[in-house]
Amino acid sequence: MSAIATAAALTLPISFTRSSKLFKRREAKSGLRLRVVALIEQGGASEGRKDPWTSLFEVEDPRSKIPLDKSKFSSIDQALEVARLDLQYCDWKARQDVLMIMLLHDKVVDVLNPLAREFKSIGTLKRELAELQGELAQAHNQVHISEVRVSTALDRLAFMETLVNDKILQERNTTDSDATIPLPSTSKESTSSRKSSNHRRSLNVSGAIKPYDSRMKNFWYPVTFSSDLKDDTMVPIECFEQPWVLFRGKDGKPGCVQDTCAHRACPLSLGSVKDGQIQCPYHGWEYSTDGKCQKMPSTRLLDVRIRSLPCFEQEGFVWIWPGDAPPTPSIPSLLPPPGFQIHAEIVMELPIEYGLLLDNLLDLAHAPFTHTSTFAKGWPVPSLVKFLTPAAKLQGYWDPYPIDMEFRPPCAVISTIGISKPGKLQGQSTRECSTHLHQLHVCLPSSRKKTRLLYRMSLDFAPILKRIPFMQNLWRHFAEQVLNEDLRLVLGQQDRMINGANVWNLPVTYDKLGVRYRLWRDSLEQEEIS
What are the pLDDT digits (tens) for 351-398? Predict the structure, then answer.
């Protein structure tokens, strides 16, 4: 251990009730203020000694020097001598205690510190540490170079994919323009502008909203959350412009039947659920989950059945198959990734066509301009926004936002947002963020101007929020605020589209995911036509 310099000064003031000249003379002669000073000098003075602590603590035990006085009263000189020896004993005792602590400390260091057991010099340790630091820095550089190479390769792949897709769109547009008879024009300028417009136009989404083709129905659709369908309740829905009602049967499993009584076309959803059967409020006819009428009060029971749909419950959703084709044996998973907890499940009915809502959800570039009062408040406007798709055509990540996004046919948008603080973004990818928000938007096409939205929000942090009362109401309020910012714009789009405007007139780079959704939907319609 390094040398220690310590100084201790102890002062003992002694006073008496009586004063005399004799006492003052004795005080001046012998001094009634005693100072005992112990100094431990720097270790340089002890160099060459075998044990640097020996000379510091070689102090004689003063207890043997205390005089024995058998008289009844002691003189002042004797009392002062005893006090002086007491102070010397205290100093000796303190030195002994410090010595013991130092020796024990050396033993602990020798036992616990492997460097001390190896007797390596400071210079050797510094040299080894410098070598390790150099190797670590070299490894960091190699990792950084590898990450840059991978990122560059992914960007090149995404860029090449964009070029290929643009080429496909241009070829389709060229074919469409060749089939169109051009109007006569004598102006070269108008001809060139028309060619430029046809060259850049990639999609035509305009005019009255068309009926949904049958192939759109041949998918599993989640239509409500399991928590919203109790044993004695029902959930009425619309799907592809047909009314349906959900309820649980006697076995607790969900069922979906046509929301129209076979007797007088009364909506069954106006009735009630009794013992696993839905009862019509008009004449009390009761139906089971397979659509069969099980009870007809006041008349003879007939063999009557209303239409029912394949219905299944999985991962907190109730799913239906509205198509005519046989349902697929498996249902896709919509659970959040491991480590996330579900915090909110919200259902909303929106007065817009489901495709326009999906277009909006698949677009992030509008956030700094549209959502200035909610989650994007204070976001800067980037000089360039891109959506990169290195892995699959319908999923990828946004640049420069740390957001991964996927369109999962037929109607789901899944996004994972990297966040550091509420409303703040950090890093260039979700992997660089320590906390995340996972969102699921399911857009059910209720009718040509109505969409049923199921929203599920999950977090990989702050699990205590689930225990706060009325937190679900707060999440719903925030979700409604965000959607209202979008709703006024999409309603305007819908009005212009019905009157002939093309809502996909001029797609740009950051519209890639929305364009691919539209191409997927067009491919279903082309298969239907063929």
Answer: 999 999 999 999 988 888 888 888 777 778 887 888 877 666 788 888
pLDDT band at 31 (very low <50, low <70, confident <90, very high): very low
DSSP structure class, residue 347: E
Type and span of the H or E element at 399: strand 395-399
**What per-residue confidence (pLDDT) applies to 188?**
43
> Measured between alpha carbons, how far is 109 from 96 in angstroms, rounded to an integer?
20
In whole angstroms, give the CA distance from residue 234 to residue 270.
10
The answer, as to whether pTM is greater than 0.85, is: no
Q: Which amino acid is at 85?
A: L
Give the sheet arrangement for strand 286-287, strand by strand.
272-274, 277-279, 286-287, 293-295
Q: Which among 34-48, 284-298, 457-471 has the top mean pLDDT?
A: 284-298
Q: Please say whether the beta carbons of 416 and 460 come within 8 A.
A: no
Q: pLDDT tens across 236-277, in order?
A: 999 999 999 999 999 999 999 999 999 999 999 999 999 999
Beta carbons within 10 angstroms of residue 174's beta carbon: 12
Highest mean pLDDT among 75-79, 161-165, 416-420, 473-477: 473-477
- Closest listed residue to residue 517, CA positions, set 389, 384, 327: 389
Q: Which of 272, 244, 239, 238 is nearest to 260 (CA)?
A: 244
Q: What is the DSSP string of 458-482?
A: EESS-GGGGGSTTHHHHHHHHHHHH
Q: How far apart are CA 365 and CA 385, in angstroms?
A: 7
CA separation (Å) from 355 to 91, 93, 223, 423? 91, 89, 17, 28
List CB contacts of 133: < 8 A, sequence separation 6 or more: none
- Please report the sign of the dihedral spanned by the C-alpha atoms of residue 429, residue 431, residue 433, residue 435: positive
CA distances from 5 to 2, 42, 45, 233, 296 (A): 10, 6, 12, 84, 105
Scanning the structure block, which residue is given the tokens 């099980």?
Answer: 294
In angstroms, the Cα distances linking 458 to 166, 373, 378 are 36, 22, 24
Are 172 and 523 a contacting pair, CB within 8 Å? no
**Predicted confidence (pLDDT) per residue in 10-20, tens digit:** 333 333 333 33
Distance from C-alpha of 444 to C-alpha of 18, rounded to nearest angstrom: 106
Phi, psi of 339 (to 5 degrees): 95, -10
pLDDT of residue 83: 73
Residue 519, classified by CB atoms within 10 Å of its CB into exposed (0-12), middle (13-18) or buried (19+), is middle
**Average pLDDT across the chain, whole number:** 77
Over its C-alpha atoms, the chain yields an Rg (Å, rounded) of 43
